[in-house]
Amino acid sequence: MTPTSPARDRGRTGTGWRRSEWRDLPTALLFIAPATFGFGVFLVWPAIRGIWLSFTDYSVFAPASFVGLDNYRRMVADPVFWSSFRVTIEYVVINIGVQTVVALLLAVLMQRLTKSMWVRGIILSPYLVSNVVTAMLWLLLLDYQLGIVNQLLEKLGLDRLLFWGSPGLVIPTIALVNVWRHLGYTALLIFAGLQTIDQQVYEAARVDGAGEWASFWRITLPLLRPYLAMVLIVTSIGSFQVFDTVSVATQGGPANSSNVIQYYIYNVAFTRYDFGYASAMSVALLLVLSAITFVQYRLSRAGQSDAS
Amino acid sequence: MTTTTPRNDDGIGTRPRTPHRRHRLPLGRVLGWVVMLIVLLVTLFPFYWMLRTALSSNSGLATHPTSLLPVDTSLNGFRRALGLTTREESLAQGGFGATIDFWRYLANSVVVATAVTVCQVSFSALAAYAFARMRWPGRNTVFGVFLAGLLIPSIFTLLPNFVLVRDLGLLDTLPGIALPTLFMTPFAVFFLRQFFLGISVEIEEAAMIDGAGRLRTFLQIIVPMAAPAVTTLAVLTYMTSWNDYLWPLLVSQTDRSRLLTLALGVFRSQAPAQAPDWSGLMAATLLAALPMLALFLAFARRIVNSVGFTGIK
Amino acid sequence: MRKRIFVAGLVPALLALGACSQSGSDPSATGSGDGAGGQVELSYWLWDTNQQPGYEQCAADFENANPGITIAFQQYGWADYWTKLTASFVADAAPDVFTDHLSKYAEFAGNGQIVPLDDLIDADGFDTSVLQEGLIDPWTFTDGKTYGIPKDWDTTAFFYNADMMTAAGYTADDLMNLTWNPDDGGTYEQLVAHLTVDANGVRGDEAGFDKNNVDVYGIGINPSYDVTGQMQWANFTGSLGWDYLDQNPWGTHYNLDDPDFQKTIDWFYGLSDKGYMPPSGTFSDETPTQIGSGKVAIGTNGDWASSQFFALDGVTIGVFPGPVGPSGQRASVFNGLADSISTSSKHQAEAWKWVQYLGSTACQDVIASTATVFPAIPSSTAKALDAFAAKGWPVDAFYSYVEDGRTFLPPITVNSAEVYDVVTPALEAIHLGQADASSLTAVNDQINEIISH
Fold it and tell me: How is domain A78-307 classified at the CATH fold level?
């Protein structure tokens, strides 16, 4: 017997429907007022301004001058722009792929295996270290000559790996370093979602003879889908905007093989002072993120909670 | 009909043991523990490395970079991080001799992170509730717009917000640093709405029938029921705010608004092609992480234990 | 209910906090301020913590001589310095005076953010001829005006592990007599080969040398690839009789397509293929760390890195200048820092006084005594050399180019950041073995295009 599922947020039919729809309005407006204020002032206005700047030539110091689609034409013809996108996509796939799978596993393990506060604290702890220091730390740990990891590899009889210096390895390295940092964060998010699943569902399943694995696939995953989708969307968006690690560890190298799009944008903006072009690339990034988010949202039907 | 008894999240411990003799179960648990231990090891080893580096001297590190134990053990890294050394001592130890007002930076960071967390979570929760539970025209559209805010590249907002803060006269002040994320982030609203959606409608209705207004329902029923989510968000927001680097760097000019993470910048290479002050940097990082670790341990129980969501009479 | 009150109370509390920190004038936020009684506070930015004590001493002396002016120092690390400066220009909160860099000032000058100093120089009769020869020229922008007063200069030389050198049978005199050419590397390459030792103890110039299993590299390489080559190959290309541009500064045509230059680049990065130099990516840190680890015998770097080298535990460091090349001279990049004044400064007159003082013998002598850099005024330089000698640091090598060798400027053009973004990956690709130096011809066309705007 299926227990009561999380309530669907559909309206009830009946009289007073119209009235009730408007009755909430004043309170709702009050509730969303501060958030909307912050949203409008600190997010929307700069975004609109940024989009406007993408059609201008703006060097920060002089007023912007309108140049129409020039920046966009330049962007399409720029091989570094395209390679940046390619590199970023490769990064996101590895980063989010590994991170989500392991975080999910960890969240389930945290719930089923051990209640220890220490375990949870330890798993979250890499997030306590700032992005900058994480990059520097792993730069040292994975150094070809001076890094302890390579020394270990050598002792095990394997070849040393050029983690930071090889064009082929550098993106996976950065991806995994960021997995290290964000694993606990993601696991915690998913764990919070796991909390909302009614334990009685598991009980019923156990009574019916389901093992851990079956419970996981048939119960946990479907019920977790909305939260998982949300986590996936948010972490993908964040992953696309990777910057700190590249800025500290590789500066886009070697030979542009880690020149991710956000790093390229910041470079163009802050060292070349070409904010118009940087804005155009940011708009492109915005569009790509929108598309990907839309697809993810649809595919996962994250907007609806699951009624089993 | 099920009852509203609060449950521990650990479904294993609270029910009578059924005599399962499944071969799969022990193997599964063993594998689970193996995975867990590997993760814990990979998570903890870099911290050990940080500690070992913090307890070494910079010159020792240069000559013995891969030693597992601290090289030339000394507490100087921590002393530099706390601002207890003189400039001459710092320079002699391989540091950079900048003055560090550690406790002040710590206080600044605590003020900013606390303010941002409390305000952002509160305002976002209010908005999330309005999106999740109230019915009003245009609700889904507005939420969609909020969601789209997740996509806004940070470089768009950096300079305009900086100019705005300058115009408000809040440069080099703590409110100036806190301002952009003080009211909401799209993620916070998104996250909380997802949880509020999952709360059963019946309890809410019951409360409203009893005469409670929206606000009271929100504060006394919804928030407690979503406590794990709210606490989780609060802890994560605190950490994110604590570790923010670029924005505080731009806004603060002097010590009075300098945050702890910026102080870390003091241990990085100051001149091009200079080696960082490794032991000072690692010591400072560990010190900067301690308050948050304490915070997490204090609130971990709230995150972990949930009031049952079954909640149906 | 409690929570609502708490929240409601927090926001005003936060604003009150902000107001409290706002009380009184906040000179630092706006870059300069007026206290009571006409006191002027100038903000001064720099990045090098090594030099800060010296400049603070200068500031103390200056304040004594000019009672109405105080100097407020702000130090940001290199990585943050320029971002912070840019943002401060945007917000009209720029420092009154700041340490400027040749590779960056062109953008500021071109955008009117820094003050041209010629009128001020003429009005006060500031004597720029006392400065080291050639030092002020690069600070003249394309409009013919000067935008910075130089205060120090630096060159690059070869630091080495003295014990390894002695074990290899070389004396200090041998090192001063090294020669080099792009064909076979000259006696320099012989030195490097001999210093390289593989895992079996075989030296690089002996039979049975295993270049895939090297224990100690003869020469290290800084992971800094850029068109100046200052941290890598500039000592060599500079002694070719070759220069970066048709005219430096403000050239219109790069010379990366020159056959001798390309041969040198191939030779230089080819040292890795021979096993004498670490392959690309082996070390992520610069030569001080490399030598300190005992895995590298020689490493190039600038005199600004001296303190790092000489602080290494258990390693005795020597320095020798670049080898003599086909041009018959040794050569090094000659760089210098200068102080610029922001256009948005509200105290231009006082700022100029401070800049003048920084460029005066009084201040430069103070800097000289700290033994951190070489001051721009030759008499002060002499004092610096004495101070270095008193510390026991053999830095004559850096000075030798000035006395008897060739010093040349790094390439100074417009749009230098964009040039950098094109050349750096190309050089990295060459060291990685993905391309050879002939790829620089196409790169040359690209960057000529960039600097022609």
Answer: MetI-like fold (1.10.3720)
